[in-house]
Amino acid sequence: MKRRSVLHSIDSVAQNWRDVLRFWYDRRRVSTAETPDRPLRKDAERNRQRILAAAGQVFAESGLAASLDAVAERAGVGVGTVYRRFPDKEALIDALFEKKMEQVREAAEAALALEDPWECFVAFMRTVCASHAKDKGLKEAMLSGDRGRERVQAAKAMMAPIGAAVLRRAQDAGVVRDDLRTFDMPMLHMAIADLAEKTREVAPAYWERMLTVVLDGLAVRRDAPSPLPCAPLTPEQFAGAMTRRS
Description:
Strand content: under 5%
Order of helices and strands: HHHHHHHHHHH
CATH topology of the domain at 100-243: Tetracycline Repressor, domain 2
Largest sheet: none
Structural class: mainly alpha
Helix content: over 70%
């Protein structure tokens, strides 16, 4: 019965993912330099993937303010090649956002498939928090004006059904407090992401310490506090985090 419920949840998520793919296909038909019915040559597709990989690294480290010149340099191609594959920076960000959200979705679905409801809940929370904490560009992509709102809606359509299924399993099993609601979870993700941004330079792993405290607070029962995965902030680190501009 439990297995059937998990499979039903995954089927529901798959349908939502197909809807999201249609959304991105419609967007990219008008935002990509390639015609939809003409596949890229192998070398052009290789360059496109190199550019996406490089953009993922550059934007994760420096945020979306990083230039396309920096992306081209990291990819080992000329900036003209970047513009041939992506007509403008927003088109590149859209394609990268789609790719990164697919990776988050796959990790979240792997969490949903875990046998133990508590481990499933913890894995889902860590997956989503890590995606924001370790990737400055991903967070900025969801907060950037009208495009950001569209990306948030796409992410919500993709992730909300998975999050709801994870929470329902955990609460049905009696391992997560029953007054937690579906949209409490993304608010916790945002709080951890903001904290991660503040401490990124002084203590990059500090968000994991705070997430562990949050998870302990959401658990219905525990024999003892969970071990915290990293050291507390030093006075100097605390001062640096408090004065850092997001």
